[in-house]
């Protein structure tokens, strides 16, 4: 029997795209192959019209960031990490933050380096109680990337962001939730069931409304209230044209459950 292990697993059912980083022996560290496979999985999820994406990891880790085994630091060959970021990480971050459906990151274990910062980009990040978030860049002479220098202070404030980034100390899931780094820490025994309930609910929700809500909230960190009021008006106008808005109001009036189609 031949078993082909792919660096990313994808399963799409009932509008839920489940993407699993799958290099457990390397704590799901990012190799070039994993980047390629992840982009392909996102293409497929978009192509089939998924309504929500769930990202998680195989084995005991979520993701240990860049696979350091791919970095040749022993030879005199020139190193250009910027080129690597331009080619792989920044396109991934931009794509994840602009997906046409909401996404949940279920952090099933340690999340370090780029792995931590990708987890923190999700619309909703939940973690098992035993998970930890590590800004490991400080330990190898780098700065937090994948948007970490932007995301961290916005989520937890400058002092906590500095402490995480300068010391690389692991932050446990409960602490992360208390700080607002993630939405919730969930006990191991309840993790799968609660994540399932969360994504099932999002898959049945009015997708376009959720996506415009995410965009509005994300842009608010750089806009004024005045600008935001205009943005809300413009996009409420757009959402008012959707079939889901009509369905939501009709269902409310008829005192029945709404059946949203994501359009
Ligand atoms: C790994 C890794 C790993 C390979 C664990 N690679 N094997 C962007 C753009 C351009 C360039 C540079 O980088 C970036 C972004 C980045 O992400 S930079 C940051 C890269 N990541 C790290 O520095 C994290 C390194 N890993 C760790 O600090 C620890 O492994 C963590 C805290 C993740 C987990 O610690 P433990 O639970 O104690 O596990 P472990 O250290 O024993 O690791 C288990 C195995 O996984 C081990 O292999 P082995 O063969 O000895 O069992 C590790 O070598 C391997 N592994 N991370 N990133």
Which properties best describe this structure?
2-enoyl-CoA Hydratase, Chain A, domain 1; Lyase 2-enoyl-coa Hydratase, Chain  A, domain 2; 2 domains; 10 strands; binds ligand LHQ
Description:
This protein has about 260 residues and is an alpha/beta fold. The protein has two domains: about 10-205, Alpha-Beta Complex (2-enoyl-CoA Hydratase, Chain A, domain 1); about 205-255, Lyase 2-enoyl-coa Hydratase, Chain  A, domain 2, CATH 1.10.12. Helices cover about 45% and strands about 15% of the residues. It contains ten helices and ten strands. It has helices at about 30-45, 80-95, 115-120, 150-155, 160-165, 175-180, 190-205, 205-220, 225-240, 245-255, and strands at about 10-15, 15-20, 50-55, 60-65, 105, 110, 125-130, 130-135, 170, 185. The strands form two sheets. A six-stranded mixed β-sheet has the order 1-2-3-5-7-10, sandwiched between helices. Strands 4-6-8-9 form a four-stranded mixed β-sheet. Helix 4 crosses helix 5 (about 160-165) and helix 8 (about 205-220) packs antiparallel against helix 9. The model has no long low-confidence stretch (mean pLDDT about 95).
